[in-house]
Amino acid sequence: MAKRKTLKQDACPVARGLDVVGDLWSLLIVRDAFDGVRRFSAFQKNLGVARNILSDRLHKLVGHGILAVSPASDGTAYGEYVLTAKGQALFPLLVSLRQWSEQFLYRAGEPHSTLVRQDTGQPVPKLRLVDDTGRALAPADTVVRKLPSGEAA
After folding, report:
1. What is the spatial distance between Cα 75 and Cα 41, in angstroms, rounded to a whole number?
2. CATH tag, 11-89
């Protein structure tokens, strides 16, 4: 199997981010970590992923500082995976992906899990990209300033 090209030096922030969390299993691991999953066996049970793939993705997420290994909260010899501040910062990405999926990948009335506020039980409002005045931004309101051709990041 051909080795995937690394994007860790790419000038595009989207490409660099995808290099770290852009595969299926990594984002599902992060999702489960937000849901309170902390142990290797629990990740494997929830995801149904092969042990070697799970081990590789957990190692990568720890290496990138998204997860950290901490002593087990129950005092056993097992380590637990916990989200770091860098990992916690992925929350808006997962919420955005969830809301996009709810809008475009489910039929009206089709059941699915729902993200709700813990204090009220009410659904989390739709994320909006706004400028510093609170005005909603659309794609046409933005432009990417690319580096000049040949300039390295």
Report:
1. 17
2. 1.10.10.10
